[in-house]
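Hey, resending since the last one bounced:
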Amino acid sequence: MSMSMGMMKMVMMQEHVALQDFDTTLAKVREQALDAGWFIPFEFELQEHYIDHGLEDMTRCVNVYLCYPEGGYAISKDDRFKAMFVMMPTAMSVYENSRGEVRIARMRFGTMATMFSGDVSKTLKEGERRLQATIEGLVEA
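The structure tokens again:
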């Protein structure tokens, strides 16, 4: 992994080893996301998408998109922060790596919150709390 990818992961993304198989982990992410107050507007199955395009060797991956409308609105009502639309809704990825390990990846909203103030920081902190609640008990500590 290049230094830039390592730095990007440290700041923007977090990866967790799941404690259960793919299907169970995916089902629990969906359930716990709803319990944590997220709305799930859609999901995207990357493996299926890549296979449809002739790329047969992709491992399983489903992005579960998570929306917190009040938070997104709080951020995006100010024109200075509308570029953050690119992260809305956010996704939690459940995937298998090439060794067959099941993992969960997500954004590091808590870290990102330290780069902002006001409504943006508050909303990112709330998003971090909801992301943590979504994976609680599903990943290694």
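The mean pLDDT is 93.

Sorry for the duplicate.
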